[in-house]
Design goal:
Elements (H helix, E strand, L loop, with lengths): L1 H27 L4 H4 L5 E5 L13 E3 L7 E6 L18 E7 L5 E6 L3 E3 L4 E11 L2 E8 L2 E8 L5 E9 L6 E10 L2 E13 L1 H10 L4 E5 L4 E5 L12 E6 L4 E9 L5 E13 L1 E5 L3 E3 L4 E13 L3 E6 L14 E2 L13 E8 L6 E9 L6 E14 L2 H6 L5 E3 L21 E2 L10 E2 L2 E4 L5 E6 L2 H4 L24 E16 L2 E3 L4 E11 L3 E9 L2 E10 L6 E8 L5 E25 L4 H6 L6 E5 L18 E5 L3 E6 L17 E11 L1 E5 L3 E3 L5 E9 L3 E2 L6 E5 L16 E7 L5 E3 L1 E5 L6 E13 L4 H5 L7 E4 L6 H41 L17 H54 L4 H35 L2 H12 L9
Parallel strand pairs: 10-13, 23-26, 36-38, 47-51
Antiparallel strand pairs: 1-12, 2-5, 3-4, 4-12, 5-11, 6-11, 7-10, 7-12, 8-9, 8-11, 14-25, 15-18, 16-17, 17-25, 18-24, 19-24, 20-23, 20-25, 21-22, 21-24, 27-28, 29-31, 30-31, 31-37, 32-37, 33-36, 33-37, 34-35, 34-37, 39-42, 40-41, 41-50, 42-49, 43-48, 44-47, 44-50, 45-50, 46-49
């Protein structure tokens, strides 16, 4: 017992000593960390990122580059396949490994936790990196900003990489660390350290490790600072009272204890009773055009009611409306002690896109409707440059957007950001070219694009970048003025820019226009829409302005379906070319007269979508714009009625110059489906009519095989024979639920091959039938009455995929759980047979057997690779057959042209017969190619389904898969 008491005494003494040490440390670090550095050259800020035996891979967020990469916490003592990777004391054996040896070239892990660096400090963050046949990148993430230490290739040896960071005097910063494998192979990361250094140690280490370091100086962003409480001056910060209720308010320089062991000076605003007063800072802040700023005020209050801050413009021009900031309320510390540290209150400002603007800070001690009493203290005011990403993530209540008066997204005369005055400033150092908000632009890394300003001094800011023959497209209409335009610089590349969409009403007219300047190349301007995830061109024009500004105009007359239309601009160059764009306008107020009378030229075009069979081709079948074809026909597309394809006067008895046609010499099949669907509402009654023309048809079953249908309904016109004249067929529709339907026009099908001619024309849709009119209509040979909407095929596919997805997940989970159940059962049986002695409880850790999970992951990765390779091979085969099919089609066209000429001239009968025989032979070969092409397309579609992928996984998991690629 005495021995036990003695041990307890020793423990108590030890505990007391530890508490004294901890308390001493606590008092020593109560103030700013900087005071501690008076005794230490460096101090560890955080080791929460370091990798130990207890670190889990779940401590990191995996990247999204690839699915065949393994990331884990690796025990180097067991890593026999990584030569030279083992480390000696004081390092442990555990590291983060990113293994891309299965084929992926890039993957990353980001720390889930953040580390905080306090303001006005010097820091170093170091990471040990090892690579094997790979590269590695390190990134520090500060909100939306990224700081990079890239291309670290150590190759079979460990190196230490450093970030040296100086924080500014305004705010603490929060950082995450991202570690990335680059260029395949293996990358290991370990010994992550975050330390604060003295200024002297910082400067010494930065020089010592300069070859392996990146410096991040956040202080350089602070461009203006007033009344710094570390070096206060009574002349720095002066306010003038501009508004008040009665003279019980005052302001003065005062001493304020800030809670860090120092007494700082501050401006004190005081209302000795509930009233309101406003003070304006005498200093002005200049916000330059296009740049982005953060204005921060350090303040604290002991008030009843909420004081606030606001910004007010001072350089208003004639007829200019000021863009005033929203007020930022200052919370009162009355429930605490007023000597707590000052809190930062910030405004985020985007400069005017054309001119610099000046503002003054207002301090509002209440308002006429919300009065305030008590004291407000301001110790510091600063302005710093920031990026647009930082601005965009700030609260709207703290924003001052000086470009808002130029945003024309709500103006019917412009597409969104059609004047290119709204930009994202992604770099403080290199403003131009800036990202254009509301535009989607794609290009290779060699090309450049974005907003530039044509003012000489502004435009000169992009000359330092890699551009060939850069010429300012200065707007000749306005001279050397500030004017933001979109620049596209294509270097051995194609750049594509798409605007946000505008809605074009059904049957409506619209005009799209833009100013464009091309240099050393030709740009293509188009109007496009998206149908079933596929882009459809509605109108286009090729433009070469040869260094001058021209206005391009594209006009549309819409058909029966509302469309969302984008302006698309493409610039292609095998060397280099420039294109500048401005003033992208849209108007839906043009009239039918204007559209009809418009004369097209090199800068103006029009497209009538109601003439869905329009074509520039006049002598043969042309590719239809609004129909998608499928089948074995040698000829299918748009036909001009005057082209002598059908030598029959009755063939011209249609309201359209161009019609949709299918022609097969040998028996085959072909189907056209309209790309533009038409939305039908349950509340309306529709009449959808069209004309069909057929020449003598021959088929296997003598059932002709021409059909018409609407895709949302079962009832179909079949066995259509018009006997050499145009015949009208009509659908009367009142759907039992809202639906979008497409017109389907077929000549034969896979089970009913047909030869001959079939044509479609004069499609007309009316939605003004009355219920009474609809109820009186009966189905007949040329009339169908439709109401029952069939199930949507896409919905069925979605349900199937969802069901399969659930099944697959259940299979994966079962594959992991079932072995565990067996193991548990065996253990329980064994435990029953063991005679146990009582021992003191001891906590132990058990290793988790991941074999089954890893097998599933390996099978999944291999299945992905095999599927991608099979898709690649199938696409290549499809492209080869398609090219061959095109060759035969061209040959057939030439033969058919010669045959027509001979018939017209009544040429040699034997030559005519041989040509006809050759045409049939070519068409038969082409039909066979068409069938094979369709089979490959079906095969390709299947390869992209979940069913194909899951089958691969199943075969690989059961060792039944034979890889045909090997």
């Amino acid at each position: 017992m005495k021995s036990k008491n003695k041990i307890n005494k020793i423990l108590n003494y030890a505990l007391t000593f530890v508490l004294i040490v901890l308390c001493s440390a606590g008092f020593a670090t109560f103030g700013k960390v900087k005071s501690v550095l008076a005794f230490n050259e460096s101090m560890t800020v955080s080791n929460s990122w370091n990798i130990t035996k207890d670190t889990k891979i779940s401590s990191f967020t995996a990247g999204d580059y690839a699915s065949d990469v393994e990331g884990k916490i690796l025990d180097l003592s067991k890593a026999e396949d990584l030569p030279n990777s083992k480390r000696t004391a004081p390092f442990d054996d555990y590291v983060l490994m990113i293994d891309g040896r299965d084929g992926s070239s890039r993957y990353s892990y980001t720390t889930n936790s953040s580390t905080t660096l306090t303001s006005n400090g010097c820091y170093v963050i170091s990471v040990d990196v090892f690579t094997l046949n790979a590269g590695a990148n390190l990134y520090l993430l500060k909100g939306e900003e990224t700081f990079e230490r890239a291309s670290l290739v150590s190759n079979k040896k460990w190196t230490t990489q450093y970030f040296f960071i100086k924080t500014n005097d305004i705010e603490d910063i929060s950082l995450k660390l991202k570690m990335e494998l680059n260029n395949g192979g293996v990358a290991l990361f370990d010994n992550i350290s975050v330390k604060q250094l003295s200024e002297q140690k910082y400067d010494e280490d930065r020089v010592t490790y300069s070859a392996n370091s990146t410096e991040i100086d956040l202080r350089t962003n602070v461009i203006q600072e007033l009344f710094n409480d570390r070096n206060a001056s009574r002349e720095d910060l002066k306010f003038t009272k501009t508004d008040y209720e009665f003279n019980v308010a005052s302001t003065a320089i005062t001493k304020v204890y800030s809670g860090d062991g120092k007494t700082n000076e501050a401006i004190k605003f005081y209302n000795n009773e509930k009233t309101y007063s406003t003070y304006e800072l005498n200093n002005e802040f200049t916000f330059e055009q296009n740049k982005v700023y953060k204005l921060t005020v350090y303040a604290k209050a002991d008030t009843t009611g909420s004081p606030s801050l606001s910004l007010k413009q001072t350089n208003l021009e004639d007829e200019e409306t000021a863009v005033d900031s929203k007020t930022v309320s200052i919370s009162s510390s009355k429930s605490e002690n007023v000597t707590n540290d000052f809190k930062a209150y910030s405004f985020y400002i985007v400069g005017n896109p054309i001119k610099d603007k000046t503002y003054k800070l207002n301090v509002n001690m209440g308002t006429s409707s919300s009065k305030v009493s008590g004291s407000l203290y301001i110790s510091r005011v600063s302005v710093s440059n920031i990026t647009y990403k930082t601005f965009s993530t700030a609260s709207d209540s703290n924003k001052l957007d000086l470009s808002s008066s130029f945003k024309l997204s709500d103006n019917a005369n412009y597409v969104n950001n059609g004047t290119f005055n709204t930009m994202e400033v992604t770099s403080i150092e290199n403003l131009y070219p800036a990202k254009a908000v509301d535009w989607t632009i794609s290009a290779n890394d060699s090309s450049k694009y974005g907003i530039v300003n044509t003012n000489s001094s502004e435009f000169a800011k992009i000359n330092s970048l890699d551009y060939s023959a850069l010429v300012n497209p200065r707007d000749t209409r306005g001279g050397d003025t500030s004017n933001n335009v979109l620049m596209m610089y294509a270097k051995n590349d194609t750049i594509v820019a798409n605007s946000a969409s505008k809605t074009l009403n059904a049957k409506g007219y619209a005009s799209y226009s833009l100013d464009i300047n091309t240099q050393n190349g030709t740009a293509k301007v188009s109007l496009v829409t998206t149908v079933n995830s596929k882009e459809l061109t509605l109108a286009s024009i090729d433009v070469n302005t040869n260094y001058s500004w021209e206005n391009v105009e594209l006009n549309l007359h819409n058909a029966y379906q509302e469309l969302k239309v984008n302006v698309k601009i493409e610039l292609t160059s095998s060397n280099y070319a420039y294109c500048y764009v401005d003033n992208v306008k849209y108007t839906s107020s043009i009239t039918e007269t204007y559209f009809t009378n418009l004369v097209e030229d090199e800068f103006k075009t029009k497209s009538d979508l109601t003439e869905i069979f329009s074509s520039n081709e006049t002598n043969d079948f042309a590719l239809p714009l609004y129909f998608e074809g499928n089948g074995t026909a040698m000829h299918a597309g748009i036909v001009n009625i005057n082209s002598n394809i059908i030598d029959n006067a009755k063939f011209k008895d249609t309201n359209n110059e161009n019609v949709l046609g299918i022609h097969m010499i040998d028996e085959g099949y072909y189907t056209f489906t309209s790309k533009l669907g038409y939305t039908l509402s349950t509340s309306k009654y529709y009449q959808i009519s069209m004309k069909v023309y057929t020449e003598p048809l021959i088929d296997q079953n003598n059932s002709k095989g021409v059909s018409l249908k609407l895709s949302s309904f079962d009832d179909t016109f079949t066995n259509i024979v018009s006997n050499g004249k145009w015949t009208t067929y009509t659908f009367y529709v009142n759907p039992d639920k809202d639906t979008t339907t497409n017109l389907v026009f077929s000549l034969g099908d896979e089970n009913n091959l047909t030869s001959g001619y079939a044509f479609l024309s004069d499609i007309e849709i009316k939605d003004d039938l009355t219920k009474e009119q609809y109820s009186e209509i009966k189905s007949s040979q040329n009339v169908r009455v439709l109401s029952k909407v069939i199930a949507n095929e896409n919905e069925s596919e979605t349900e199937t995929k969802t069901s399969k997805s659930k099944t697959n997940w259940w299979m994966i989970i079962s594959s992991m759980v079932f072995p565990i159940v067996i193991i548990v059962a065996i253990v329980v049986i064994l435990l029953r047979k063991v005679k146990w002695k009582k021992f003191a409880k001891k906590k132990t850790k058990t290793d988790y057997d991941r074999k089954e999970t890893v097998n599933v992951q390996v099978a999944s990765r291999r299945a992905t690779m095999i599927r991608e390779e099979n898709i690649r091979k199938t696409k290549a085969e499809l492209n080869e057959l398609t090219a061959e099919h095109v060759k035969y089609e061209e040959e057939y066209k030439q033969n058919l042209l010669e045959l027509r000429k001979l018939k017209i001239k009544r040429g040699d009968a034997l030559e005519i017969k041989n040509l006809e025989k050759n045409c049939k032979k070519i068409q038969k070969t082409s039909a066979s190619l068409g069938m094979n092409i369709n089979k490959l397309k079906s095969k390709l579609d299947y390869m992209q389904t979940d069913a194909y992928y899951n089958n691969l996984v199943k075969q690989i998991s059961s060792n039944k898969f034979v890889d045909e690629n090997k």
